[in-house]
Amino acid sequence: MTDDGIDEGIDYGGGELPSPGRVSTRHERAGAAKLPRPATGLADGLTAGDAVPKHVAIIMDGNGRWANAQGLPRNAGHAAGESALFDTIEGALELGVEQVTVYAFSTENWRRPAEEVRFLMNFNESLLIRRADDLDDRDVRVRFIGRRGRPVPKRLVRLIEDTEALTRDNTRMTLCIAFNYGGHAELVDAARRLAEDFAAGSLKRITEEDLAARLYDPEMPPVDLLIRTSGEQRTSNYLPWQAAYAELVFTDLAWPDFDRRSLRDCIALYQQRERRFGKAVDQVVKVRGKGD
After folding, report:
1. 219/164 Cα distance (integer angstroms)
2. What is the fold of 49-182+221-270?
3. Among 54, 56, 12, which residue's Cα sits nearest to residue 260?
4. Taking Cα atoms as reference points, which of 156, 176, 144, 199 lies closest to residue 54?
5. CA distance 184 to 182
6. Helices 114-137 and 74-95: crossing angle, nearest 10°?
7. Is the pLDDT assigned to residue 20 strictly greater than 90?
8. What is the distance between the alpha carbons of residues 161 and 21, in angstroms, rounded to a whole number?
9. pLDDT for the residue numbered 255
């Protein structure tokens, strides 16, 4: 185990973890880059354009319960969730979603058994090493939100920064990973910065825009659709500011069983909703738009 708490002896299917080093850019890998997969008819039956949610947030819940149901250790569920994540990303790309934000590790998850926490730290490091180039090849920009100080291992923080740097100029879609994230913590951190700026005299008054500018990612658009898997019906301290007007969809599928078709089904439900934003019923139309 390293000083950062990373157990380099654990094998996640890719052997020992290589050192982070410098990551090549997509343009440097020209000729070897993987092209986006062809359309599969996933969007058939959906309304295109503005009716597709621009920002989808997902609480990836149920890995442990899925593993228990299979007679496997909890960590096997986390590993199985990787396939679900990347199939969902492929679906989001095909459907034209502009941003996907996933809840990977919360500030409360440190309370889980030490073995599981160590696995998740190692697994997320391994995932970034193995998947950063794939995301870059698909023109996906990767961002992270959450606290990056201890107890997050320094080596993992370096990989997070490397991945953000590698993909920063990509424009097809943004994948935001909430890691060591808690909604209350984000608001406290933003309020602290706000108070410091106010005390320093750089602010004369405080507005919603001032607070929003001090969130972990001030550029993050409002969440249109928030999905939670595994049957739980709560938002668990996830994006309370950004998801204030999000449409919520709860599915009984455990996260390892979720895929691009499941995402498509959730968007179909979203397109049947009326988004009011405080307006009266006769002032709004369904997401699908006029004539539907």
Report:
1. 15
2. Undecaprenyl pyrophosphate synthetase (3.40.1180)
3. 56
4. 176
5. 6
6. 20
7. no
8. 12
9. 96
Among 256, 271, 21, 263, smallest CA distance to 128 is for 21
pLDDT for 285 beyond 60: no
Mean pLDDT along residues 232-242? 97
**CB 248, CB 256: distance < 8 Å:** no
pLDDT tens, residue by residue, 90-123:
999 999 999 999 999 999 999 988 988 988 898 8
pLDDT tens digits for range 191-222: 999 999 999 999 989 999 999 999 999 999 99
Domain ranges of the chain: 49-182+221-270
Cβ proximity of 48 and 97 under 8 Å = no
Q: Determine the number of helices (DSSP H) and then strands (DSSP E) in the chain.
A: 7, 6
DSSP string, 148-171: -STTS-HHHHHHHHHHHHHHTT--
Going through 32-184 in order, the beta strands assigned E by DSSP cover 55-59, 99-106, 140-145, 173-181
Per-residue model confidence as pLDDT tens digits over 26-70: 545 444 444 445 556 898 888 888 899 999 999 999 998 999 999
Bond from prior residue into 221 cis (ω within 30 degrees of 0): no
For residues 14 and 26, give the distance between their C-alpha atoms in angstroms, rounded to a whole number.
Answer: 21
- Rounded Cα distance between 236 and 233, Å, is 9
Task: Please list the active-site residues.
Answer: 61, 109
Rounded to two decimals, the pTM is 0.83
Report the alpha-carbon distance of residue 208 to residue 166 in Å, rounded: 32
